[in-house]
């Protein structure tokens, strides 16, 4: 809902373009700046001692609307000072011993509300700004930062540098993210993959058995629903931010690379400890959750910037904005997204970016076979398909669906038939990180089950639960592998999500009966609730009635369903969804497409579940997928430092807990 | 889906009536009995050492269908033996030193599936049975119970008596149940009642601050969705059971009082310790969650039985079935449900049941004023309205809604205008229980926020969150009060739910814009997702745009919303719902009625949210409300013994953890 245009010294509005949001509620001028003077880092920011960050100051002069002021000319003579302890407030240049920076100016516009948008009457805001780059605070305690503008108006930001841990508890950190994974999904996955007799589970999810259980709050800095970029920023930097941002606070300028940056856990680990770093995801590797370990941009969609930052640094991406730290070429990068690597429209400057990685000493592998065969001694880039990797169900149960995708990571238009799963990637990554740990510096790995989220967006909950079960299986296998190589007791394992999707199982559906009915309302009567929900049809052989003595153990191997498409299926619903058709069956021919566009916006896809009933949604006509939700997500942890992950806390605390386990804070008093 | 009829010695079917379930999935012959020989307690049962239970054995002979056998004549010569350790299998009469019991016989019928139901072709089953009453096992370890029938067929039940705690940790137990409360609801309640600045909450829910966090699985013994009777049975007895049961395993007989019973935490506490007992609920006091502390019946709808068991005992209710323990007249009974007490159709034999309580030494109070004024020294019955008590929002914000209800607990048809809330009842209950603790025996109280569930059933999520916030406020006030009277360190406080409702917040709605649009799809576009969800409109003054500097502190008192009906409201959805109309506004004239019956089943109530959009549901036409869901629910605990509540476990484990904190196990070796 925001458009920005960098302008020269003139306060005249030069250009305004509007992003294409059709549905919207609160249109804020700038979420973290409720007054006309903006300070980034904003009020309430907490830092790890020594963590690098940029300062951005803005003074807004709205040209029109209820906040119109100063004739639309922003004050350029603002001052900014910082106070710690009982001393006075020192000018920013003196406090940090830096040169003053020059004034930048631009304009942006926004709509006050949906009525204004319908009427086409935007508010225009002119801005004067300064930025100070790559600073840090290393004395624990409280700080007050004060912007004075417009002849005496003040914006005060209270900052805190937390007292860091001084003793390192964990040599290694294995950080699993189940993207979009909620407790209702974990409960549903347990139902379909684990055998229960008379209400007693005979086996449990690995997550159920971790040493510590916590909850974290996922909301954004300026809205209560987050996206994955924003939430990953919170997990990796300890800073709440805005939807679509990667490790920056969103300013109002048009340039998405000039927003004030903050240092990530990966950068801190590289800078202070120099240990091995691994990034593993079942998404395209420039997607938000992996990207957020290394990239800094207002716009998560800048995939070329992201892969460039993997290989080089933020400073190299745009030399205007000094940023002296980086991920320094992660030892392991495994995922999809080959379109950013083979020469073409998606790769940096159209170059062969596989070759660029080889030139920097990387082994490059493009299939599971190559992955398993490659040496563990070298830095390794593994890219296994165009776009997101195949889903567990399609790789293991419905293998025909891998064909005809023309998604080979070579870019030659053949099919990527030999893809690893999260488990194969993660176990190999452990071996490489371990081999590249020369002394006792240890390693840090983020491993993401990305398609829990992606399949929930598609309302394809069977596939989403397959991905969730693969994550659980990966955790189980990783624990066994770490134990085998003698590193389990040295490794903090943390499992969490970045946000939720409204989803819950509410009954059992007789899919045969549903399919046989001719009216929507009669089809809906195929669902049994309460006592008639019945038992899990997924733990019995195909065609069997689910009862307490038809349970089968281990046909697909333990910890996965025996039957994926039973007559008696679970019936689940969503917090919000586009119009759809529903029959509660597995989508056997590939991921679901619930809605298709029409002149009237998205409508139910008539080819999705044609034997189902029509189920109109609640989302606006511009939304063809499910959306993220508010609920707290679970945190599971084991190993040294895991006790800190118990209880209820904010998403940003995950960063501080991991940083403390690794003793990454650097103080001076 | 089951009908039962007790019959004489004949195997001929005498009468079959069908319960009115229209939608259903799995129709099991008898959930806990997948073979033709049934053992109660069933396989996988775990006992507290010394806990009383009944044994029920059944042999089934289906007359028709795929299981038809023995010409429909059930084997009456079955045998049943019990083996512990390495000894042989001893006949039940010898093992327990009891007389053999006589054969009972009956028939029941069920439908194999929905096709059979549509065709009107039930399966008829004839049954031969025996029961043995009020037994116990006091040696920890594994047991094998074996039923042999039909000339050699076996049903084996594995039982375990858990090793109990020997040291008592807690003097008092305060057990809070938020009926139907899930983590997504807790997250939503935090959003509307607590102030967040730039993503940092300035205050937290009391639940967020408890010492221990856990998750519990709520599924039934024979279906994956539970009701509140069944789940309360799990929490209070450590035994999974069937929908609608209170502290029995569901057998197949018609008599709902002859099902095999099991002893509750309240009965154990009374029998072994003799401490004070309190039952508090915002529901009618014969409702499942309070009733399950003391009652034993297959049918939670037997309200007269329930209130009779409060005052007398299970044995007195039906002297045929020996049950030698009871709640022995709880010291505190506070709630609604006056229709079971004033003389009339709902009271036991039409008598004045208030007087019956007075005759047993109870003080009886019928308003908050009387409650606060009454002595803390006597047993006290407090009944404050017909049906469920008023909701927090109506008692505190929309007080006009209390009028015209004609729900006075006196039964005189006037309004119950002077009702206490959960906090007032719970704090007074603490005082009474404390005053009635003569020595060091301590007390046990269950306090239920019942209408979280009831309002979620009605899709009235604003009222549900009001009830949830009242629960949180009650916990906070209880902790403060216990501290004041010096009992906090002696008291284990446990907070949990009995099941979920699919519910989650997915965005923010501009209700003014929604109301102003003329088409359903345009109304749906009033919802903003992700960054356009905005900030909480509930923490700013009426009419203010929610931003980080319009936040107001404490207008309604801390920990409740400042504004309940803001222009920018949260938008929430359900896992499943009946057809409804939606506008995301507070229902200002009283609890919501989302659907009304029609010749075609339930349809959206045209008078509910007339300015909203039409939102068809997914539930069958017979369902006019929201339904329960699968998700694990949270457990929060503080005080002595609370560390045991960390992690992920089954609902039945709550019983064992509380029993261990009170050292209620009684072993003999």
UniProtKB/TrEMBL annotation, chains A, B:
The active site is at residue 228. Binds 1 Mg(2+) ion. It is an enzyme of class 3 (hydrolase). GO terms for molecular function: alkaline phosphatase activity; metal ion binding. This is alkaline phosphatase. Zn(2+) binds at residues 179, 453, 457, 498-499, 628. Its cofactor is Mg(2+); Zn(2+). Keywords: Magnesium, Metal-binding, Signal, Zinc. It comes from the Eukaryota. Residues 608-627 are annotated as: Disordered. Mg(2+) binds at residues 179, 287, 289, 448. Its EC number is 3.1.3.1. It holds the Pfam family Alk_phosphatase. Residues 1-24 form the signal peptide. InterPro entries: Alkaline_phosphatase (IPR001952), Alkaline_phosphatase_core_sf (IPR017850). Belongs to the alkaline phosphatase family.
